[in-house]
Predict the 3D structure of the following.
Amino acid sequence: MAQAARRTAASSSSVGAESRDARSFEALSGTWPHALSHEPMLRVSDVLQLVQPQFPTLTPSKLRFLDSHGLVTPGRTASGYRQYSPADVERLRFVLRQQRDHYRPLTVIREQLEALDSGRLHEPVTLTEIGETPDDYLTSAAVAERGGVSPDTLAALEDAGIVARSVPDGFEPAVLPVVVASAAYLQAGGDVRALRTLVLAARREADRAEAISAPLRRKGGGEAEAAAGDFGEAAIAAFSAVVRHQVGG
C-alpha cells in the first residue's frame, strides 16, 4: 500500500507539474523578440555595420534572400527601401547563428522562429545597444582597422579592383565583408592575383542574377529581388560544394 501511495503521489505531482507548465505558457502575438522595439529605423547599411563584426559574410543579397523567405522581414519606406527595427536585427542574428553554429536548414529555423513568436520557445536576447547611426562612408584607415588588414594590403586590394572607394578616401560600409574575406584568403596562402580571378567570377554570377531578375523587375513587385537572391545563394552553394569536394577528395 505504501508503494501504491507513493505511485499515486508521484502521479499527482507529475500532473501538477504538467498543469503548471501549461499555465506558464502564454500565447503571444507579433514577432519575436517581443521586448525590443519594432520601429523601423535602420537602413541596410546600418544593419551591416551592426551585424558584420559577428557575421562578416553578411551581404545585402543575403538580407534580401532572408526577406524573400519570410525569415527576417523589414519594413519599407514610401520609396520601397528596406528599414529594419532593433527587433529585426536580433531576429537576423538568431537566424545567422542557427546557420553558422548548428547548420540548420531554413525550414527548421522558420519553425523555431514561429515557436519564438508564439512564446512556445524562449531565447535570450543578445542585441547590443544601438548607438548613433553609422556614417555613410568609412575612411581607408577605418576599413583597414575593422577589416583586420594593413593599409598596404587594403591598397593592394584596391589596385586590383577588388574593392573601390565610393568617394575620395571613403568606402561604403558594405565593403567590409569583402575585405575580411580577402584577408582570410590571403592569410591562408592565396595571393591578390588569384583573389582577383575569384572576385571577377563572383561578379559575373551577380550580373547573371540581375539578368535573371530583370524581366520581373520591369513588372514591379518583390519577385525580382527574391529571384536574384535565390540565384545568388545557389551560385554560392555550387561554388563552395565544388571547392569542398576537390579539397576533400
